[in-house]
Amino acid sequence: MRVSKRASGALAVGAAFALIASGCSSGDSGDGGDAGASKDGAIVIDGTQPENPLVPANTTETGGGKIIDWLFTGLVEYPNNGGAPQNALAESIDTTDSKVFKIKIKPNTKFHDGTTVKAENFVKAWNWAAYGPSGAQNASFFADIQGFNDVYTEDPDGPDGPQKAPEPKAKEMSGLKVVDDTTFEVTLAAPTAVFPTKLGYSAFMPLPDSFFSDPAAFGKKPIGNGPVKFVSWQDDVDIKLTRFDDYNLRDKMKIKDVTVKIYQDDTAAYNDLLAGNLDFQQQIPVSATAGDKWKSDLGDRAIASTTPVTGIIAFPIYDKRFQNPKLRRAISLSINRQEITDKIFFGNRKPADSWANPLTPGAEPGNCTACKFDPTEAKKLLQEAGGFTGKLTLSYNADASHKEWMEAVAQQIKTNLGIDAQAVGVPTFAVFRQNINAHKMTGAYRAGWQQDYPDVENWINPLYVTGGSSNDGLYSNPQVDALAKQASGAASIDESHKLFAQAVKLIDQDVPSMPIYFGGQQSGHSEKIKKMELSNVGEIDITSVEL
Amino acid sequence: MGRYLLRRLLQLIPVFIGTTFMIYALVWKVPGDPFAGKCGDRGCPDNFRALMTEKYQLDQSIWVQYASYMKNLFQGDFGITFSGRPINDIIATSYPNTLKLAVVALTIEAVIGLGAGVLTGLRRNGFMDNLVLVSTLFLIALPVFVIGFVLQWLFGVKWHIVNPTVSNEMRISELILPGFVLGSASMAYIARVARTSIAENRRADYVRTAIAKGLPMRRVVGVHLLRNSLIPVVTLLGTDLGALMGGAIITEGIFGINGIGRQVLRAIVTKESATVVSIVVVLVLVYLLMNLLVDLLYAALDPRIRYE
């Protein structure tokens, strides 16, 4: 999940829509820009300095993430409207049991260095990312594949202990087999219906042969297979990209050059946008969203969109005080989410009312009964739970803008339940995260979740299943685990969604965490851009840009 | 003079070692595992953290870390950042930018500040004096980010006179606005100090003598009065270069300048000791050398001061 630590609040993502040009002076009936202007056109968009070398399986933050998204095309891709994934590089992904997948890729597509994309480019890339000693940040995405445990070993006493992770038995996962140049077979450890959906996530991108000889050099000058080719990267200044003319998977980019200008301060970027020096800003600064200033500044160049991000406050269920579901439900019911999104976020975010973000396929709006505001019921439940003694801390990382809404939540709990609730800022995200990882939280804490791939599975398995990669509160309900397992292994996506819906009902009874708001994004573009779309995660879809 | 200079230069060595160690220890003491927060709310896989911890020797004691940092430093290698960038590159690109900005700021504050100071010092309580008094009060009272945002919006967005942010070429014409913002507070102080100093020396015996001798006013002010009144101003200006470079974080952010402020801020937040120390070490050297230069300038301005 790619929520940058600095901008997890601002990070937004969008249901896509097309913008029809407003300032189209020629008055032609076309739905977009002028093909001539677009052909050699160049745009400047805002970005942040990537925190890591640009290797797909090692990029988890937004600065590098969007570059990766443009440079690579995976087996499947997620449509801008947030719907179900479609085949992109894959010709077909066939399975009879959701366990063995036969993947056929389209022949004769090229990497930017001119080499052909072959089946082994996938297999080798996945094996590299999963191999423990490579230390890839996205290694856990390959855990579904048979043989993952042979290539990825856990450190017996955690990374802080003196022992080291033992050398893995194997270098390659036994579940991956190259059949021929355009076909490979993936065997999973257990049936996983959502596996084909995951394949559009950046960790699953193919890598050219040159990567394996020198991963470090590749990270500075990545070679992808997407519609956009890497040109240069000057640290802290800009990243230059250009159209890949041999791209043949779908529409080529209509404009030619894209410069991602690296900003340190989003207000500086916004002023550049207003002055016409910047063509697109993905997230308008908070200062400009207050009082809807950005809408009057930008007029119809302002784009408001919703994003598959949910702001959550989680409970440390390993702490005795939080083990009573009635107490957790009481706290959740005492929060007036509507008031928080209206007053703190000026209506730019929406009050959460379901466990999975409603933009996600398989999610059901309104299925979080604990997300209602019902102070009477909350008081009753608190009494039944035997009250709450001591101070209830709500921690957040103070290096991003979370203070206001966390304090508002604390105040509501205090007013509506009489619990001594207090919002506590932890100076940096690193310390905050370290305490969460070590299960040392003594009160509720801020969490956030942005989907990695559009399926309800991504909102349940990592967060609410025992041992899930982000189940930091150690919530555990055997019934939920059983249902989620059944759902993951279902023969079809529809069936899987039905079973997940049942699991969500149980989660809703237990209230392991409290969804508070759904993300929203406020973007803006220059007068130069006549037509553009946002991707399913709110990034500018640069193949759609017309000038 | 030569011996004095040598002594001062030798003093730099313990100061250099002391500051590097202090800063290294301070950053080392900042709590938090730098690799725990790198992967967003999901948290980083243990293997990633283990690999990075080993690569950057974070499991070693501070003595081992500091010793290996110093060893590389003496070979001219500042180390690499957590994202694998050589710190030498960062210093080579960001220092010239910040220096350029600071020099522009210094020039603006020297010219305007001194000009206003001389004008008001010679004619106290006039209209100019009151105007400068009020406007300097205004500059001192306003935080630099307010001045920065307001001027950026007025000149960059509303009137379109300049670009709101500075391009990568760092042209001098683009730096005038950020330079003014950065130097604004110091400019006000310089104007006030110069005014007081001039006003005081205006009544000194040697000035009265010079006027009585029938020297033209320009010469009285330009040679006798100004030269003797400059010592406090030079002290302020000299130490200000270091302060401007170190204090440019906000201005650099507002105007999108790729300078050391951004790098230090990022490195402190991500607990990147090597980067913080490397940048600050160079800054410390700037301070020390500027101080030395100021001391030498005293002798040039006032012949009564001799170093031996």
Automatic annotation (TrEMBL), chain A:
InterPro entries: Peptide/Ni-bd, SBP_5, SBP_5_dom. One of its GO terms (molecular function) is peptide transmembrane transporter activity. The keyword Transferase does not apply. GO terms for biological process: peptide transport. Pfam families: SBP_bac_5. Residues 1-26 form the signal peptide. Residues 29-60, 152-173 are annotated as: Disordered. One of its GO terms (cellular component) is periplasmic space. Residues 85-470 form the Solute-binding protein family domain. Keywords: Signal. Transmembrane segments: none annotated. Gene3D superfamilies: Dipeptide-binding Protein, Domain 1 (3.90.76.10), Dipeptide-binding Protein, Domain 3 (3.10.105.10), Periplasmic binding protein-like II (3.40.190.10). This is Peptide ABC transporter substrate-binding protein.
UniProtKB/TrEMBL annotation, chain B:
Gene3D superfamilies: MetI-like. GO terms for biological process: transmembrane transport. InterPro entries: BPD_transp_1_N (IPR045621), MetI-like (IPR000515), MetI-like_sf (IPR035906). One of its GO terms (cellular component) is plasma membrane. It is a multi-pass membrane protein. The chain crosses the membrane at residues 9-28, 101-119, 131-155, 175-194, 276-301. Signal peptide: none annotated. Residues 95-298 form the ABC transmembrane type-1 domain. It is found in: Cell membrane. Keywords: Cell membrane, Membrane, Transmembrane, Transmembrane helix, Transport. PANTHER family: DIPEPTIDE TRANSPORT SYSTEM PERMEASE PROTEIN DPPB-RELATED (PTHR43163), DIPEPTIDE-TRANSPORT INTEGRAL MEMBRANE PROTEIN ABC TRANSPORTER DPPB-RELATED (PTHR43163:SF7). Belongs to the binding-protein-dependent transport system permease family. This is ABC transporter permease. It comes from Micromonospora globispora.
